[in-house]
User: Which sequence fits this backbone?
């Protein structure tokens, strides 16, 4: 299934990857915070798996980023 707003979704993913990297977390480390595998993180970061809202919130919290601020930033970036 694809997003109805692919550019905005790709912007959100790019910001999530950037936030994870800024936090100094590997994909494996982030996955471990959920009790999930590195493959889970790879699959949403490369866009092969869509995140549901609950997963998005949990990932943001695990990275230490405000999920609402990240969405706001993505929306501004995708519009401009």
Assistant:
């Amino acid at each position: 299934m694809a997003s109805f707003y692919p550019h905005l979704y790709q912007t959100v993913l790019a910001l999530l990857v950037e936030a994870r990297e800024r936090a100094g977390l590997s994909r494996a480390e982030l996955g471990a915070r959920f009790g999930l595998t590195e493959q889970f993180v790879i699959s949403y970061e490369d866009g092969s798996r869509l995140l549901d809202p609950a997963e998005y919130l949990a990932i943001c919290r695990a990275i230490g980023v405000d999920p609402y601020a990240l969405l706001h930033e993505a929306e501004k970036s995708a519009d401009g």
